[in-house]
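G., the chain you wanted modeled:
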Amino acid sequence: MRYLPLSDADRADMRARVGVSDIDEIFVDIPKSARLDGLLDLPKRQSEFGVERDMSRMALKNVPASAVPFFVGAGAYKHHVPASVDHLIQRSEFLTSYTPYQPEITQGTLQYLFEFQTQVAALTAMDVANASMYDGSTGTAEAVLMAHRVTKRNKAVLSGGLHPQYREVVEGLTAMAGDTVESLPADPNATEDILSQIDDETSCVVVQSPSFYGQLIDLKPIAEKAHAHGALLIAVFTEVMSLGLIEPPGAQGADIVVGEGQSIGNGLNFGGPYVGLFATRQKYIRQMPGRLCGETVDANGKRGFVLTLSTREQHIRRDKATSNICTNSGLCCLAFTVHMTLLGGKGLEKLAKINHAHAVKLKAMLEELPGVSVINDAFFNEFTVKLPMEATAVVEALARRGILGGVPVARLEPGKAELENLLLVASSEVNSDEDRDAFVAALKEVLA
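Predicted structure as tokens:
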């Protein structure tokens, strides 16, 4: 291989050093179902023109979210992002900046990280926030590990309303450390008795609100029970826009708040990159993963910003680190900060109210259809619809009619018959009356 200068002898030495006889042994922890057996069905070589033509042809198979009525959520939401956000983040001084280890040349980057942290702390009603995580799912897993460090325990209880993919990330990461995870069954109706699962062995309780099914959860009694047993409450959200309207987790007693910030400033993007939000109480700040930007003064007494509390060695030496995720989603959190600054507190509240009003309108329309019911008694902009037939087939039929009508719960929770007729539907400020009319009309036709 022209660009891989290692010899067979070099590779043999490396295998011997790490204790494997074959390269495949390195990947034993990855399920076989997720591994390729052989090469992809692609030409081994192609001209630049040919690659461009083939990629364009494949891209045309996609249906852009902006091209059709769109009601998909389940952790990734379509909101309007002002053109000014993209304009500002593409300025060269932002777009090309890198790791801010040298504060004397990265004051701009450090300042917007500081502003980002301030916004996240205010939104969540927590004392301090870090400079972002990769996304909400990895942030949730890091919060569990942080709770283990704080409590000196290793048992986490996960609510059945936690996003299934977030649950899988937590289970995957903690399994490597030999920790205990008790995942409660799927909880569409928000009826689980999570309080009974908390005992003196519990490190943390992980609860999402709005839940994966859109249910709003009262966190206060859960926080009280957790604290009575010396455990922490980790509050999770996937729709940060909801914090413009509902009581923030910090005000409900949460010890760590994590979630996905994609809804503010970051458009839908084939699953990422997104931006994880992470906030906690002041007393736990030294166990918080990731970067933390602080405000200070320079030798001349002028205001300045630095990375604080963690040294560079913590970022590059795993045995000294609170986390192996020691970077942050810089450009995505800049987009978040720009959009949040443009909105302001009143603007976010107004936008959140519009989201909720649109969802309420859609709920009322859907419930008029024969055999259709909404299981939620409280929600923000997303709710769960119970259909008279399998939701997966309904969604595929809607897509053929030019409607992206939601996410079947069974796609993220496969093999559970009781969930097969459930459909997650989200409605944000971008949905018009015409969109809702088209969705309801198409669903009525499919169900008939």
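The first helix runs from residue 8 to 18.

Shout if anything looks off.
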